[in-house]
Design a protein that fits this description.
With 148 residues, the protein is mainly α. The chain is built from six helices and no strands.
Length: 148
């Protein structure tokens, strides 16, 4: 059976929360479960804002990835154009074919990455597990104000 919540637990939760500690850090400090700390916090009218910090970091990472996708798309197209130029100056048919194959592959990379960059607005298309996770984290940050 779970140990009853004591007034000392409540005092420690209030004090540690005021000090900016996370729910899990408070739980470790007072030797209680995270769910018990959440229960005490709810009863005391306290909220943990860690979700907002996670959401901000996730959005920053998403914006950085979007900028890198644009750069990758540009570099892929530049590489494809260089390969096309080399086709004309190839010393053998095999070299010409290899340059053409590389140009085609880089063009495909450009097209895929450019499409991802176009879709990379405020929310993801939900295509990957990480995108869905980021959407879930960002969605929870805009909700009730309580976080992880």
């Amino acid at each position: 059976m779970a140990e009853p919540i004591r007034e000392g637990d409540r005092e420690q939760v209030r004090r540690l929360h005021a000090g900016g500690k996370s729910r899990n850090a408070i739980a470790r400090t007072i030797g209680r479960s995270a769910s018990t700390v959440s229960k005490i916090a709810a009863q005391e009218g306290l909220a943990f804002s860690g979700g907002a910090r996670v959401a901000a970091a996730t959005e920053s990472r998403r914006a950085d990835a979007a900028a890198r996708r644009v750069l990758l798309a540009d570099e892929s197209l530049d590489g494809a154009l260089r390969q096309v130029e080399r086709v004309g100056g190839a010393e053998s048919a095999r070299d010409a074919r290899d340059h053409a194959t590389a140009a085609r592959a880089l063009t495909e990379v450009h097209a895929r990455v450019a499409e991802l960059a176009r879709q990379g607005g405020a929310g993801s298309t939900g295509g990957s597990m990480l995108d869905r996770l980021a959407d879930a984290l960002l969605g929870s940050a805009g909700g009730d104000g309580e976080g992880v």
